[in-house]
Amino acid sequence: MSLTVLIGPPGVGCSVVAKVLAKQLGANLVDVGRTVAQRLGVDPNFAIAQVGEERYRSCEADVFKLSLSAPQEGAQVVAAGSGWINTPGLSQALAQSDAQVICLSAVDAVLAQRNGLNVPRSAALGTVRRDFLLAAHERLSQCRALASLEIDTSKKLPEQVAAEIMTHLKDADACKYA
């Protein structure tokens, strides 16, 4: 099985890039966030708010582990994001898998825009943008430690990012058999 896992903080494009990449590879696609929401019977955009973080993370851990170990014919692309990264055992499971792990990143202004944090907000809400970016930076640091490649998606179309990943996968495959 050829397994490629895309990781990174919210807004870097893991889901959309994984969809493009899976299509280009003719591979099975597992979008962890969407699969979790589907299993829980909730809207993917509001899943944590609807079922609570503990229940969501528990289901996410199950889906994530299954995506790394499920026997599949051919290739599989997993859009994993980074919500799972602090769940005990999951980083180790990814590191011990045969997956090509790709970290997607973006600059702060792009992350804020893609997550709807580029508009004025009431001061009563506190420092939402700053808090989000601090959490995103922490997750990105953890993701970088697991990845063989990092791609900044800030100024690239999903197709361009997928093409870079394809090149990396071909090079990695060539090294494996050299």
From TrEMBL:
> Where does the sequence pass through the membrane?
none
Q: Name one Pfam family in it.
A: SKI
Q: Which GO terms describe its molecular function?
A: kinase activity
- Highest taxon, organism lineage: Bacteria
Q: Which Gene3D superfamilies match?
A: P-loop containing nucleotide triphosphate hydrolases (3.40.50.300)
Listed InterPro entries: P-loop_NTPase, Shikimate/glucono_kinase
State the UniProt keywords alphabetically. Kinase, Transferase
Q: What is this protein called?
A: Shikimate kinase
